[in-house]
Design a protein that fits this description.
The protein has about 475 residues and is of the alpha/beta class. The protein has one domain (about 25-465): Glycosidases (TIM Barrel). The chain is built from 15 helices and 13 strands. It has helices spanning about 30-35, 45-50, 70-85, 95-100, 110-125, 140-145, 150-165, 180-190, 200-225, 250-270, 275-285, 295-300, 350-365, 390-410, 455-465; strands at about 25-30, 90, 125-135, 175-180, 230-235, 240-245, 305-310, 315, 335, 370-375, 415-420, 440-445, 450. The chain has an 8-stranded parallel β-barrel with strand order 1-2-3-4-5-7-10-11, surrounded by 6 helices. It has a 3-stranded mixed beta sheet with strand order 6-8-9, with helices on one face. A two-stranded antiparallel sheet has the order 12-13. Helix 3 packs parallel to helix 5 (about 110-125). The protein starts with about 25 loop residues before the first strand and ends in a 6-residue tail after the last helix. Bound molecules: beta-D-fucopyranose (FCB).
Length: about 475
C-alpha cells in the first residue's frame, strides 16, 4: 500500500520538546546525486558514471551527468539551505573531483569548488559536515580491484589527508564513509549499485577494506588536525530486525540479518572485533575476512559520532513462502516479511517507533553519541497549479520521526542531531530521477527549486523549537 500524496492534512507546526538547545538540525545531500558537471574542471569518471552506462542498470537509463546542476548553482542552493534555518549541511566530496584517478596530487579546481561551498556555508552561519565517500569511487581504483582489494583502503586514507589539508582549516565535522553496507552488498554482492559485481566473497572483503579505510582515514584526519577541533565519524544504514514469529528459525533469521547488517560493522568499529557468530556463518560459506595484524586496532579508531541513516525497520522469517529453510544456493533463508504498514514510494514501510528502538539499542550496545545523518521519504508528489507542493505525507513522516528521536532522547539515547534526506529531489541511484526525496522540489527541465510544504514545516518547526519567531 502506498500513501497517496497530499491526501491527509499536514501536521501542525509545534516546538519539539525534549531536545537540548544545541541539538543539530540539518539537511543532507551527496555529490553524485546533485552536482552534475561530471566532466568539468578535471573531475574523472567514478564507478557511478560507468555503471549508469550499463544497459538496464539504472531506471530509464538515467545518469548524474547534470543531476541538479548544483555544481553551477551552488551559491543559490546555499541561500536556499540558509532560508530553512538549519544549522548544519551534510554533503559529500566527489573523490574523482578532489583527486582525479584516485591517486596522486589534489585537483585545485575541484577543491576550489568545495572551498567556495564551505566558505559560503560558514558565511551564512551553517556548519559544513563533510562525507568523504558517498559511493563515487574513482573508476581507476575499481579497475585495480575496487573495495575488495586492500590497496583501496590505503588510497582512501591518502585522499582523506588531501581533503583535510585543503579544507581542515574551515571544516570540523568529517564522516569517512556513507553506508559501507550498501557499497559492499549492493555494489559487490547483489550488483544493484556500482560497480555492479555479484560475488558474496568479494563483498565481504569489501566490508573489511571499507572499515579499514575508515580507520586509516580517521587516524590521518586526527594527525592532520593536531590540536584543532575535529569530530570524526562514520555513517551506517541501520534499522531494527524483528522475528516474524517466535519460531527458532525466524529468530535465527533475525540474528543473521542483524549480524550482517549491523554487528558486522559496529562490533569492529566500536569493540575492535568481528562478531563470532557472523564469522562462523561466513566460514560455513567458505568466506574468511582478510584481516591482517593490526587491522582491527585501526578499524576501532575512536569515533566522536556515529551517523545513523534510518529508513525502516524490518521483520524477518527463516522460512521461504514455499516452506523451505534453505535458498537456491543452499544458504539459510533470511526473508523480509512485510508488516502490512503504509509505505513510501520506495515501498519502504513507515515505522517511526523502530527509530526510537534503534537509537536505544545503539546506546545500550555501543554507547557512541549519534546523529541521524539521513531520514526522509520519497512520495509521488507533484506541483499543484499554483506551484505549491502539498506533501502532507512527507511532512507527517518527518514529524513522526522527529518525535521518535525525542522519545529516544527522553529514554536516555545520546542523539545529538537530525538531518533530513534530502535537501532537494535528486538522482536516486538505480531508481534514477523517479523517486523524489527532497523537501525542495526540483523541476529537472528548468532546474527551478520550490520549497515543498514539508520544507516550510521543517523551517517553522526548527524556529519554534529554538524559541525564535516563526519565519
Ligand atoms: C541512502 C543513501 C542516500 C539516498 C537514500 C534514500 O541509502 O545514503 O544517498 O539514496 O538512501
Amino acid at each position: 500500500m502506498s500513501i497517496i500524496s497530499n491526501a491527509q492534512p499536514a501536521p501542525a507546526v509545534r516546538a519539539l520538546t525534549g531536545l537540548p538547545a544545541d541539538f543539530r538540525f540539518g539537511v543532507a545531500t551527496s555529490a553524485y546525486q546533485i552536482e552534475g558537471a561530471v566532466g568539468e574542471d578535471g573531475r574523472t569518471p567514478s564507478i557511478w558514471d560507468t555503471f549508469c552506462r550499463v544497459p538496464g542498470a539504472v531506471s530509464g537509463g538515467e545518469n548524474g551527468d547534470t543531476a541538479c546542476d548544483h555544481y553551477h548553482r551552488m551559491p543559490q542552493d546555499v541561500d536556499l539551505i540558509a532560508s530553512l534555518g538549519v544549522d548544519t549541511y551534510r554533503f559529500s566530496l566527489a573523490w574523482p573531483r578532489v583527486q582525479p584517478h584516485g591517486s596522486g596530487p589534489a585537483n585545485q579546481k575541484g577543491l576550489d569548488f568545495y572551498r567556495r561551498l564551505t566558505d559560503r556555508l560558514l558565511d551564512r552561519g551553517i556548519t559544513p559536515w563533510i562525507t568523504l565517500y558517498h559511493w563515487d569511487l574513482p573508476q581507476e581504483l575499481e579497475d585495480a580491484g575496487g573495495w575488495p582489494a586492500r590497496d583501496t583502503a590505503l588510497r582512501f586514507a591518502d585522499y582523506a589527508a588531501l581533503a583535510h589539508e585543503a579544507l581542515g582549516d574551515r571544516v570540523t565535522h568529517w564522516t569517512t564513509l556513507n553506508e559501507p553496507w550498501c557499497s559492499a552488498m549492493l555494489g559487490y554482492a547483489w550488483g544493484q549499485h556500482a560497480p555492479g559485481r555479484r560475488d558474496f566473497g568479494d563483498a565481504m572483503h569489501a566490508v573489511h577494506h571499507l572499515l579499514l579505510g575508515h580507520g586509516l582515514a580517521a587516524r590521518r584526519l586526527r594527525e592532520a588536525a593536531g590540536d584543532n577541533p575535529l569530530e570524526v565519524g562514520i555513517t551506517l544504514n541501520l534499522g531494527t530486525a524483528d522475528p516474524a514469529t517466535d519460531s527458532p528459525a525466524d529468530q535465527d533469521a533475525c540474528r543473521r540479518a542483524d549480524g550482517l547488517g549491523t554487528r558486522l560493522y559496529l562490533d569492529p568499529l566500536v569493540h575492535g572485533r568481528y562478531p563470532q557468530d557472523v564469522l562462523a556463518d561466513l566460514s560455513a560459506r567458505g568466506v574468511e575476512m582478510p584481516v591482517r595484524d593490526g587491522d582491527l586496532e585501526s578499524v576501532a579508531a575512536p569515533l566522536d559520532v556515529l551517523g545513523v541513516n534510518f529508513y525502516q525497520g524490518l521483520q524477518f522469517s527463516g522460512t521461504a513462502e514455499d516452506g523451505s529453510t534453505l535458498d537456491e544456493e543452499g544458504q539459510p533463508v533470511t526473508r523480509v516479511v512485510p508488516r502490512g504498514l503504509p509505505t513510501t514510494a520506495m515501498d519502504w514501510e513507515i515505522i517511526p517507533a523502530s527509530l526510537t528502538e534503534l537509537l536505544l539499542r545503539l546506546e545500550r550496545d555501543y554507547a557512541v553519541p549519534t546523529v541521524v545523518t539521513e531520514n526522509g521519504a520519497a512520495f509521488h508528489d507533484t506541483a499543484d497549479a499554483d506551484g505549491r507542493v502539498r506533501d502532507a505525507d512527507r511532512t507527517a513522516y518527518l514529524a513522526d520521526h522527529l518525535a521518535a528521536v525525542s522519545a529516544a532522547r527522553a529514554r536516555g539515547a545520546d542523539v545529538r542531531g537530525y538531518f533530513a534526506w534530502s535537501l532537494m529531489d535528486n538522482f536516486e541511484w538505480a531508481y534514477g530521477y523517479g523517486k523524489r526525496f527532497g523537501i525542495v522540489r526540483v523541476d529537472y527541465d528548468t532546474q527551478q527549486r520550490t520549497l515543498k510544504d514539508s520544507a516550510l514545516w521543517y523551517r517553522d518547526t526548527i524556529a519554534l523549537t529554538r524559541g525564535e519567531p516563526r519565519p
